[in-house]
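User: Hey, quick favor. My workstation is busy. Could you predict this chain's structure for me?
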Amino acid sequence: MITTLSLERLSSSVMAVPPLCRNADFSISASQNARLIKHIEGGGVNTLLYGGNANFYHIPLSEFDEVLSCLEQQVAPDTLLIPSVSCLWGTMMDQARIVRKHKFPTIMILPMQGPVTSRGAEEGIRRFVDAAGIPALLYLKNDGYMDVPEVARLAESRVISGIKYAIVRPDAANDPYLRSLCDAVDKRLIISGMGEQPAIIHMRDFKLPGFTAGVINIAPAAFNHMLKSMRTHNWAEAEKVQLICKPLEDLRNEISPVRVLHEAVRLCGIAETGPLLPLLSNLDPADHPRVAAAAKALLAANRQFN
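Assistant: No problem, here it is.
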Protein backbone atom coordinates (compact mmCIF):
# COMPACT_ATOMS: atom_id res chain seq x y z
CA MET A 1 0.00 0.00 0.00
CA ILE A 2 1.38 3.38 -0.94
CA THR A 3 1.46 5.94 1.87
CA THR A 4 2.07 9.18 -0.06
CA LEU A 5 -0.10 10.80 -2.68
CA SER A 6 0.27 13.29 -5.54
CA LEU A 7 -2.30 14.72 -7.94
CA GLU A 8 -0.78 12.63 -10.71
CA ARG A 9 -1.09 9.41 -8.68
CA LEU A 10 -4.71 10.18 -7.76
CA SER A 11 -5.78 9.80 -11.38
CA SER A 12 -3.08 7.48 -12.71
CA SER A 13 -5.46 4.50 -12.52
CA VAL A 14 -9.18 4.11 -12.78
CA MET A 15 -10.56 4.11 -9.22
CA ALA A 16 -12.18 0.75 -8.57
CA VAL A 17 -15.02 0.96 -6.02
CA PRO A 18 -15.30 -2.62 -4.69
CA PRO A 19 -17.86 -4.32 -2.50
CA LEU A 20 -16.72 -5.60 0.90
CA CYS A 21 -16.75 -9.39 1.31
CA ARG A 22 -18.24 -10.77 4.51
CA ASN A 23 -18.84 -14.17 6.05
CA ALA A 24 -22.34 -15.44 6.80
CA ASP A 25 -22.13 -14.00 10.34
CA PHE A 26 -21.27 -10.52 8.94
CA SER A 27 -17.62 -10.78 9.97
CA ILE A 28 -14.98 -9.60 7.50
CA SER A 29 -13.65 -12.28 5.15
CA ALA A 30 -9.94 -11.64 4.65
CA SER A 31 -9.59 -14.46 2.11
CA GLN A 32 -12.47 -13.38 -0.12
CA ASN A 33 -11.51 -9.71 -0.03
CA ALA A 34 -8.00 -10.80 -1.03
CA ARG A 35 -9.41 -12.74 -3.99
CA LEU A 36 -11.34 -9.73 -5.23
CA ILE A 37 -8.41 -7.34 -4.72
CA LYS A 38 -6.02 -9.64 -6.62
CA HIS A 39 -8.50 -9.89 -9.49
CA ILE A 40 -8.70 -6.07 -9.73
CA GLU A 41 -4.93 -5.58 -9.44
CA GLY A 42 -4.38 -8.35 -11.97
CA GLY A 43 -6.20 -6.25 -14.56
CA GLY A 44 -3.77 -3.37 -14.12
CA VAL A 45 -5.92 -1.32 -11.74
CA ASN A 46 -4.15 -0.16 -8.59
CA THR A 47 -6.47 2.34 -6.94
CA LEU A 48 -9.18 0.95 -4.64
CA LEU A 49 -11.82 3.22 -3.13
CA TYR A 50 -13.98 1.60 -0.45
CA GLY A 51 -17.16 3.63 -0.09
CA GLY A 52 -20.81 3.10 -0.99
CA ASN A 53 -20.38 -0.22 -2.80
CA ALA A 54 -18.64 -1.54 0.33
CA ASN A 55 -21.50 -0.18 2.47
CA PHE A 56 -19.12 1.86 4.63
CA TYR A 57 -22.17 3.88 5.65
CA HIS A 58 -23.20 1.18 8.10
CA ILE A 59 -19.88 -0.16 9.39
CA PRO A 60 -19.95 -0.28 13.21
CA LEU A 61 -17.35 1.88 14.92
CA SER A 62 -16.27 -1.21 16.88
CA GLU A 63 -15.35 -2.93 13.58
CA PHE A 64 -13.77 0.03 11.77
CA ASP A 65 -10.16 -0.56 12.83
CA GLU A 66 -10.40 -4.26 11.93
CA VAL A 67 -11.76 -3.46 8.46
CA LEU A 68 -8.98 -0.96 7.74
CA SER A 69 -6.31 -3.40 8.94
CA CYS A 70 -7.77 -6.26 6.89
CA LEU A 71 -7.82 -4.26 3.66
CA GLU A 72 -4.37 -2.71 3.99
CA GLN A 73 -2.87 -6.18 4.52
CA GLN A 74 -4.34 -7.47 1.24
CA VAL A 75 -3.27 -4.84 -1.29
CA ALA A 76 -0.05 -4.75 -3.31
CA PRO A 77 2.76 -2.33 -2.36
CA ASP A 78 1.97 -0.01 -5.29
CA THR A 79 -1.80 0.09 -4.72
CA LEU A 80 -3.52 3.25 -3.50
CA LEU A 81 -6.11 2.21 -0.93
CA ILE A 82 -8.72 4.81 0.05
CA PRO A 83 -11.28 3.81 2.68
CA SER A 84 -14.15 6.03 3.81
CA VAL A 85 -15.50 7.56 6.98
CA SER A 86 -19.06 8.39 7.94
CA CYS A 87 -20.88 11.47 6.77
CA LEU A 88 -22.18 11.96 10.34
CA TRP A 89 -20.13 14.45 12.37
CA GLY A 90 -19.91 12.51 15.64
CA THR A 91 -19.05 9.18 14.04
CA MET A 92 -16.60 10.85 11.66
CA MET A 93 -14.67 12.38 14.53
CA ASP A 94 -14.56 9.10 16.43
CA GLN A 95 -13.25 7.42 13.28
CA ALA A 96 -10.57 10.12 12.89
CA ARG A 97 -8.73 8.76 15.93
CA ILE A 98 -8.69 5.29 14.36
CA VAL A 99 -7.58 6.61 10.96
CA ARG A 100 -4.58 8.27 12.63
CA LYS A 101 -3.28 4.84 13.67
CA HIS A 102 -2.94 3.79 10.03
CA LYS A 103 -0.85 5.08 7.11
CA PHE A 104 -3.44 5.96 4.48
CA PRO A 105 -2.45 9.04 2.44
CA THR A 106 -6.08 10.17 2.20
CA ILE A 107 -9.57 9.03 3.17
CA MET A 108 -12.96 9.75 1.67
CA ILE A 109 -15.80 11.40 3.57
CA LEU A 110 -19.11 9.88 2.51
CA PRO A 111 -21.70 12.41 1.27
CA MET A 112 -24.19 13.86 3.72
CA GLN A 113 -27.90 13.82 2.84
CA GLY A 114 -29.33 15.01 6.16
CA PRO A 115 -29.34 18.51 7.70
CA VAL A 116 -26.27 20.35 6.45
CA THR A 117 -25.08 23.77 5.33
CA SER A 118 -22.19 24.46 2.99
CA ARG A 119 -20.23 26.43 5.57
CA GLY A 120 -21.00 23.83 8.23
CA ALA A 121 -19.68 21.08 5.96
CA GLU A 122 -16.52 23.08 5.29
CA GLU A 123 -15.91 23.56 9.02
CA GLY A 124 -16.61 19.90 9.77
CA ILE A 125 -14.23 18.67 7.07
CA ARG A 126 -11.49 20.96 8.32
CA ARG A 127 -11.89 19.68 11.87
CA PHE A 128 -11.95 16.06 10.73
CA VAL A 129 -8.78 16.47 8.68
CA ASP A 130 -7.03 18.10 11.62
CA ALA A 131 -8.04 15.19 13.86
CA ALA A 132 -7.21 12.45 11.31
CA GLY A 133 -3.89 13.96 10.25
CA ILE A 134 -4.43 13.37 6.52
CA PRO A 135 -6.34 15.26 3.80
CA ALA A 136 -9.81 14.08 2.81
CA LEU A 137 -11.20 13.03 -0.54
CA LEU A 138 -14.36 15.10 -0.91
CA TYR A 139 -17.41 13.28 -2.29
CA LEU A 140 -19.90 15.58 -4.04
CA LYS A 141 -23.06 13.60 -4.73
CA ASN A 142 -25.96 15.98 -4.17
CA ASP A 143 -26.79 19.58 -5.03
CA GLY A 144 -26.89 21.80 -1.96
CA TYR A 145 -24.22 19.94 -0.01
CA MET A 146 -21.33 22.31 -0.69
CA ASP A 147 -21.17 25.51 -2.72
CA VAL A 148 -18.23 26.13 -5.02
CA PRO A 149 -16.58 28.87 -2.85
CA GLU A 150 -16.39 26.52 0.15
CA VAL A 151 -14.95 23.71 -1.98
CA ALA A 152 -12.41 26.13 -3.46
CA ARG A 153 -11.25 27.19 -0.01
CA LEU A 154 -10.75 23.56 1.02
CA ALA A 155 -8.74 22.94 -2.13
CA GLU A 156 -6.64 26.08 -1.76
CA SER A 157 -5.71 25.21 1.81
CA ARG A 158 -4.99 21.58 0.81
CA VAL A 159 -7.50 20.20 3.26
CA ILE A 160 -8.74 17.94 0.48
CA SER A 161 -6.66 15.61 -1.69
CA GLY A 162 -9.25 15.45 -4.45
CA ILE A 163 -12.93 15.52 -5.33
CA LYS A 164 -15.11 12.57 -6.34
CA TYR A 165 -17.74 14.28 -8.46
CA ALA A 166 -20.96 12.25 -8.72
CA ILE A 167 -23.92 14.62 -9.06
CA VAL A 168 -26.22 12.98 -11.60
CA ARG A 169 -27.56 15.20 -14.40
CA PRO A 170 -30.12 14.38 -17.13
CA ASP A 171 -27.43 15.51 -19.56
CA ALA A 172 -23.89 15.11 -18.22
CA ALA A 173 -22.62 17.68 -20.72
CA ASN A 174 -24.95 20.35 -19.31
CA ASP A 175 -23.65 20.83 -15.78
CA PRO A 176 -23.19 24.46 -14.68
CA TYR A 177 -22.07 23.43 -11.19
CA LEU A 178 -19.26 21.25 -12.56
CA ARG A 179 -18.28 24.07 -14.95
CA SER A 180 -18.04 26.47 -12.03
CA LEU A 181 -16.08 23.92 -10.01
CA CYS A 182 -13.60 23.42 -12.86
CA ASP A 183 -13.09 27.18 -13.04
CA ALA A 184 -12.53 27.48 -9.28
CA VAL A 185 -10.16 24.59 -8.51
CA ASP A 186 -7.34 22.72 -10.23
CA LYS A 187 -9.07 20.23 -12.56
CA ARG A 188 -6.51 17.62 -11.62
CA LEU A 189 -8.32 17.39 -8.27
CA ILE A 190 -11.65 16.37 -9.79
CA ILE A 191 -12.38 12.71 -10.56
CA SER A 192 -15.52 11.70 -12.44
CA GLY A 193 -17.30 9.66 -9.79
CA MET A 194 -20.26 7.92 -11.45
CA GLY A 195 -18.73 5.04 -13.34
CA GLU A 196 -18.06 4.75 -17.03
CA GLN A 197 -21.44 6.13 -18.16
CA PRO A 198 -20.58 9.88 -17.92
CA ALA A 199 -16.79 9.34 -17.86
CA ILE A 200 -16.21 10.05 -21.54
CA ILE A 201 -18.13 13.33 -21.38
CA HIS A 202 -16.37 14.34 -18.17
CA MET A 203 -12.90 13.58 -19.50
CA ARG A 204 -13.47 14.84 -23.05
CA ASP A 205 -15.62 17.93 -22.46
CA PHE A 206 -14.63 18.96 -18.92
CA LYS A 207 -11.01 17.74 -19.15
CA LEU A 208 -11.20 15.75 -15.91
CA PRO A 209 -8.16 13.46 -15.42
CA GLY A 210 -9.81 10.19 -14.39
CA PHE A 211 -12.90 8.32 -13.24
CA THR A 212 -14.27 5.77 -10.79
CA ALA A 213 -16.09 2.57 -11.73
CA GLY A 214 -18.10 -0.18 -10.09
CA VAL A 215 -18.26 -2.94 -12.69
CA ILE A 216 -14.49 -2.55 -13.03
CA ASN A 217 -14.43 -5.10 -10.21
CA ILE A 218 -15.46 -7.66 -12.82
CA ALA A 219 -13.62 -6.22 -15.84
CA PRO A 220 -10.50 -4.37 -14.63
CA ALA A 221 -8.46 -4.91 -17.79
CA ALA A 222 -11.28 -3.51 -19.93
CA PHE A 223 -11.43 -0.36 -17.84
CA ASN A 224 -7.68 0.00 -17.88
CA HIS A 225 -7.94 -0.09 -21.67
CA MET A 226 -10.78 2.46 -21.57
CA LEU A 227 -8.70 4.93 -19.56
CA LYS A 228 -5.71 4.54 -21.89
CA SER A 229 -7.99 5.07 -24.89
CA MET A 230 -9.41 8.28 -23.47
CA ARG A 231 -5.96 9.59 -22.66
CA THR A 232 -5.05 9.23 -26.34
CA HIS A 233 -8.41 10.76 -27.36
CA ASN A 234 -9.54 7.49 -28.90
CA TRP A 235 -13.12 8.06 -27.82
CA ALA A 236 -14.57 5.46 -30.17
CA GLU A 237 -12.46 2.75 -28.52
CA ALA A 238 -13.57 3.95 -25.08
CA GLU A 239 -17.19 3.75 -26.19
CA LYS A 240 -16.67 0.08 -27.06
CA VAL A 241 -15.93 -0.62 -23.40
CA GLN A 242 -19.05 1.31 -22.42
CA LEU A 243 -21.13 -0.96 -24.65
CA ILE A 244 -19.55 -4.09 -23.14
CA CYS A 245 -20.51 -2.88 -19.65
CA LYS A 246 -24.01 -1.71 -20.58
CA PRO A 247 -26.03 -4.89 -19.82
CA LEU A 248 -24.79 -5.07 -16.23
CA GLU A 249 -24.95 -1.29 -15.75
CA ASP A 250 -28.54 -1.31 -17.00
CA LEU A 251 -29.40 -3.86 -14.30
CA ARG A 252 -27.67 -1.73 -11.67
CA ASN A 253 -29.70 1.28 -12.76
CA GLU A 254 -32.92 -0.74 -12.85
CA ILE A 255 -32.60 -2.60 -9.53
CA SER A 256 -29.88 -1.18 -7.25
CA PRO A 257 -26.29 -0.16 -8.06
CA VAL A 258 -24.84 -1.49 -4.80
CA ARG A 259 -26.89 -4.68 -4.45
CA VAL A 260 -26.48 -5.77 -8.08
CA LEU A 261 -22.71 -5.25 -8.03
CA HIS A 262 -22.35 -7.06 -4.70
CA GLU A 263 -24.14 -10.12 -6.11
CA ALA A 264 -22.55 -9.91 -9.57
CA VAL A 265 -19.04 -10.37 -8.16
CA ARG A 266 -20.20 -13.58 -6.47
CA LEU A 267 -22.35 -14.92 -9.29
CA CYS A 268 -19.52 -14.77 -11.84
CA GLY A 269 -17.14 -16.57 -9.46
CA ILE A 270 -14.64 -13.85 -8.58
CA ALA A 271 -15.23 -13.88 -4.80
CA GLU A 272 -17.86 -14.80 -2.25
CA THR A 273 -19.19 -11.40 -1.23
CA GLY A 274 -21.59 -12.75 1.42
CA PRO A 275 -24.35 -10.76 3.11
CA LEU A 276 -24.81 -7.01 2.92
CA LEU A 277 -24.89 -5.21 6.23
CA PRO A 278 -28.25 -3.80 7.27
CA LEU A 279 -29.79 -1.41 6.47
CA LEU A 280 -29.26 -2.94 3.03
CA SER A 281 -30.34 -6.42 1.97
CA ASN A 282 -29.05 -8.83 -0.63
CA LEU A 283 -30.55 -9.11 -4.06
CA ASP A 284 -33.80 -11.03 -4.55
CA PRO A 285 -32.93 -14.52 -5.90
CA ALA A 286 -35.42 -13.92 -8.71
CA ASP A 287 -32.98 -11.36 -10.12
CA HIS A 288 -29.96 -13.66 -9.93
CA PRO A 289 -30.24 -15.24 -13.41
CA ARG A 290 -30.18 -11.90 -15.26
CA VAL A 291 -27.35 -10.53 -13.11
CA ALA A 292 -25.33 -13.74 -13.42
CA ALA A 293 -25.67 -13.77 -17.21
CA ALA A 294 -24.58 -10.14 -17.54
CA ALA A 295 -21.70 -10.54 -15.08
CA LYS A 296 -20.36 -13.70 -16.72
CA ALA A 297 -20.54 -12.10 -20.16
CA LEU A 298 -18.63 -9.07 -18.89
CA LEU A 299 -15.98 -11.27 -17.24
CA ALA A 300 -15.55 -13.21 -20.48
CA ALA A 301 -15.24 -9.98 -22.47
CA ASN A 302 -12.60 -8.73 -20.06
CA ARG A 303 -10.22 -11.51 -21.16
CA GLN A 304 -9.66 -9.89 -24.55
CA PHE A 305 -8.01 -6.93 -22.79
CA ASN A 306 -5.59 -8.94 -20.62
